TrEMBL record:
Classification via Pfam families: SAM_Ribosomal_mS41
Biased composition (Low complexity): 37-50
Origin organism lineage: Eukaryota, Fungi, Dikarya, Ascomycota, Pezizomycotina
Domain of life: Eukaryota
Protein's name in the database: Small ribosomal subunit protein mS41
Stretches the record annotates as Disordered: 37-62
GO cellular component, one term: mitochondrion
Keyword Metal-binding: no
Main location: mitochondrion
Subcellular location: Mitochondrion
InterPro entries, alphabetized: Ribosomal_mS41, SAM/pointed_sf, SAM_Ribosomal_mS41
Stretches assigned to the Small ribosomal subunit protein mS41 SAM domain: 67-123
Length: 250
């Protein structure tokens, strides 16, 4: 029986694989590509974070022009510490340790203040934070009717705007009118919303800076809270039965 010659000899295979490996250098290619992708992602992430990073010291707003007003609106009796914080920059740069040294107590008040500082940096204001015209802590609101032919699905027929103090609506330039969120018109001309008080002898309403108007209300513990509720109620039942026995009811 005739023997068949192999198509490729072993030495040929070795030469082919060695040349292919040398020319491709697959690990180096994948490594360089992965490094390039990592660098690209890192660069894009740093650029995005730099663009979205809130300012370290945000500018005051018309409603919140100073430290005392800021501490007043966030509530929790923090207004009493206004004299301990010298200026606006210090309000947003003092650390928790430094606030403790200045006498801002208890610790939960410091945490609450720091939490509201971060919100303010990010533009997350409470009610009235978008007001543009505030004088001596008072802002005036008026009812503005939409232009004829306006799309009622996009703009209500009547909405609330903030106007400069002591200025009738008809005398205000359209650029001076700013729509206010959180308030709406009820009926013909009644402005409804938090802390909105009707003006006497004229149409509209006013908002006055009030202590605690941005405050996050704390819950109240009932019967010692969730952890101690069973124990507190058990002791209460024992005391009630003891009193009933003393009165001869049991």
């Amino acid at each position: 029986m005739a023997s068949m010659k192999p198509l490729l000899r072993p030495q040929h295979l070795r030469s082919v694989f060695s040349s292919a490996t040398a020319s491709l250098s697959i690990p180096q290619v994948f490594l360089s590509q992965s490094l390039r992708r990592s660098n690209t992602r890192a660069a894009s992430t740093s650029t995005t974070s730099a663009q979205k990073a809130p300012p370290q010291i945000p500018p005051p707003t018309p409603l919140i022009p100073d430290v005392e007003t800021f501490l007043t609106v966030i509530g929790r009796d923090l207004k009493q510490h206004a004299s301990k914080i010298p200026d606006w920059n210090s309000l947003f740069t003092l650390s928790s340790e430094r606030l403790r040294e200045l006498g801002v107590e208890p610790p939960r008040s410091r945490k609450y203040l720091i939490r509201w500082r971060q919100r303010f940096r990010q533009g997350q204001y409470g009610i009235g934070g978008d007001l543009q015209h505030v004088e001596d802590g008072v802002a005036h609101l008026r009812v503005l009717e939409a232009a004829p032919g306006a799309d009622v699905t996009q703009t209500p027929r009547k909405y609330v705007v903030n106007v400069p103090s002591n200025r009738p609506l008809r005398e205000c330039d359209p650029a001076e009118l700013s729509r206010v969120q959180g308030y709406h018109v009820q009926g013909a001309k009644t402005i409804v919303g938090p802390y909105a008080l009707p003006l006497k002898d004229t149409e509209g309403a006013c908002i006055t800076v009030t202590e605690g108007m941005w405050e996050d209300r704390r819950g109240h513990k009932i019967d010692g809270g969730e952890r101690r509720r069973t124990e507190v109620r058990y002791k209460r039942r024992i005391a009630e039965r003891r009193e009933a026995r003393e009165r001869g009811e049991l």
